[in-house]
């Protein structure tokens, strides 16, 4: 299908409307719909692939399940390591599809080997675009208003053309793109003072820098209505500061992952996020793999993609921890999670050898504008910080990273630094955790709605 055709546009708008409709269905009704969708996917996988038939052999008759929690509890949990090792077998080719009809999304592989998920392009794009438009609709954005995007991977553009799916909403107003690495926070705010955007889209680290500069100088930006944050979660303090300093009462956090696309987005009425139940099954599990039911209780995030028929991700443990939000009566029935979603890194060990998770949420070094990507590799004696930075990391920055990591990881005496361009050293001691294939820096999938 031609992805720029009117037919595609009308399909996506129809899909958006369908998603919006399902977001207010009574819980029991939507659970039945999700179960039916899920059974379709499982039946497809087992009928097309011997690997999948074997992987799901412990299920009783797939069509006989009448409860979503029951079928989920009968399925194994898949982690990224397992997915990476078995991705060839997991893949189910679409009949007669050419290579160009697939798209591969690769994770950064921060605490596990990078995972490449091959998707059927048309399907992946439709779902992603429809979800993006759901978010625009929920927050009643007007495509004609001025928007400023701040991104690290693209050059500046004035009066740029926004791409689909935003063009499906009408002729866009002035849109600007600024590269966050080529401008100081002062320059970015100065620019915003000139163009007076209604909407600002950026990553949380850049927003934190703008907040600090705005507190210091007080640029006259009167026009801002909404700030949307993608790529990582914004902490509550920065959110409150940004709200008061920029006079905005809507800050939208989008929780995304390369493997899936949208996972959750901020509620139009409240601070919690709603999981995108039209496309994914979002579970929060305790240490014994039991569903966490109580709001506020921390658990591991496990996600199933209902629409990826080429690389089915079924009960995939993404490596984050989250909590259900308190029920609020906001009118949207998609499950609500608290905005504090963090990365769970259970490989770290205490001195007794017990696993001790730690979180890299909100560490100081995430604010370094020159640091574009990194991996952390744990050897028995050394923690290796393997990074890409331009023009490099200063010794002060290395000390900040050192302090941040020492506060989080026990049992590590030394932290060494290695830029991506240098070949990875072979350790002489026992290896605890090694990632063999560091990737070149790639853009976030979250930034693709631009083009
Ligand atoms: Zn809500």
Explain what the structure shows:
The chain has 3 domains: 176 residues, ANL, N-terminal domain (Rossmann fold, 3-Layer(aba) Sandwich), CATH 3.40.50; 125 residues, Rossmann fold (3-Layer(aba) Sandwich), CATH 3.40.50; 84 residues, no CATH class. 29% of the residues lie in helices and 20% in strands. It is built from 10 helices and 17 strands. Helix 1 crosses helix 6, helix 7 crosses helix 8 and helix 8 packs across helix 9. The site of zinc ion has 9 residues, from loops.
Concise summary:
The chain has 451 residues and is α/β, with parallel strands linked by helices. Helix content is 29%, strand content 20%.
List keywords for this structure.
single chain; 451 residues; alpha/beta; Rossmann fold; 3 domains; 8-stranded mixed beta sheet; 4-stranded antiparallel beta sheet; 10 helices; 17 strands; disordered C terminus; binds zinc ion
Q: CATH topology of the largest domain, what is it called? A: Rossmann fold
What's the helix-strand series? HHHHHEEHEEHEHEHEEEEEEEEEEHE
Question: Number of folding domains?
Answer: 3
Please work out how many helical segments DSSP would assign.
10
Low-confidence stretches: 345-359, 422-451
Please compute the radius of gyration using only Cα atoms.
Answer: 22 Å
Mean pLDDT: 83
* Biggest sheet layout: 8 strands, mixed
First CA to last CA: what distance? 18 Å
CATH architecture title of the largest domain: 3-Layer(aba) Sandwich
Fraction in beta strands: 15-25%
Ligands in the model, by name, code or SMILES, are: zinc ion
Structural class: alpha/beta
- Gross morphology: globular
Count the E strands.
17
CATH homologous superfamily annotation of the largest domain? ANL, N-terminal domain
Helix content: 25-40%
Strand order of the biggest β-sheet: 4-3-5-6-7-8-9-13
CATH top level of the largest domain is: Alpha Beta
């Amino acid at each position: 299908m031609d992805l720029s055709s009117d037919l595609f546009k009308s399909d996506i708008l129809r899909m958006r409307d369908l998603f919006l409709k399902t977001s207010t269905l009574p819980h029991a009704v939507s659970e039945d719909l999700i179960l039916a969708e899920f059974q379709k996917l499982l039946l497809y996988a087992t009928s097309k692939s011997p690997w999948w038939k074997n992987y799901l052999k412990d299920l009783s008759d797939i069509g006989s399940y009448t409860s979503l929690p029951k079928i989920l509890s009968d399925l194994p949990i898949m982690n990224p390591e397992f997915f990476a090792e078995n991705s060839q077998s997991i893949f189910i080719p679409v009949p007669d599809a050419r290579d160009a009809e697939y798209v591969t999304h690769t994770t950064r592989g921060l605490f596990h080997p990078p995972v490449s998920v091959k998707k059927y392009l048309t399907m992946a794009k439709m779902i992603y675009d429809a979800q993006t438009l759901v978010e625009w609709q929920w927050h009643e954005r007007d495509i004609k208003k001025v928007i400023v995007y701040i991104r690290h991977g693209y050059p500046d553009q004035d009066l740029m053309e926004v791409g689909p799916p935003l063009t499906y909403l009408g002729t866009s107003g002035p849109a600007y793109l600024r590269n966050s690495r080529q401008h100081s926070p002062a320059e970015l705010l100065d620019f915003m003072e000139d163009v007076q955007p209604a909407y600002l889209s950026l990553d949380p680290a850049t927003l934190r820098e703008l907040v600090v500069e705005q507190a210091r100088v007080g640029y006259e930006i009167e026009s801002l209505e909404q700030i949307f944050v993608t790529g990582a979660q914004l902490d509550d303090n920065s959110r409150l500061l940004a709200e008061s300093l920029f006079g905005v009462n809507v800050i939208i956090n989008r929780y995304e992952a390369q493997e899936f696309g949208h996972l959750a987005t901020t509620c139009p009425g409240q601070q919690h996020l709603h999981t995108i139940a039209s496309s994914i099954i979002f579970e929060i599990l305790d240490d014994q793999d039991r569903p966490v039911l109580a709001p506020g209780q921390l658990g591991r995030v496990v996600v199933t993609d209902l629409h990826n028929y080429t690389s089915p991700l079924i009960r995939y443990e993404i490596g984050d921890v989250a909590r259900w939000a308190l029920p609020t009566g906001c009118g949207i029935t998609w499950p609500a999670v608290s905005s504090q979603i963090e990365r769970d890194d259970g490989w770290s060990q205490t001195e007794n050898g017990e696993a001790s998770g730690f979180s890299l949420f909100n560490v100081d070094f995430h604010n370094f504008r020159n640091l574009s990507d990194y991996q952390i590799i744990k050897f028995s004696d050394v923690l290796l910080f393997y990074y890409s930075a331009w023009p490099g990391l200063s010794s002060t920055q290395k000390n900040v990273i050192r302090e941040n990591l020492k506060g989080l990881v026990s049992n590590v005496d030394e932290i060494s630094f290695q830029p991506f361009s240098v070949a990875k050293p072979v350790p002489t001691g026992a290896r605890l955790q090694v990632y063999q294939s560091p990737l070149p820096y790639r853009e976030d999938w979250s930034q693709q709605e631009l083009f």
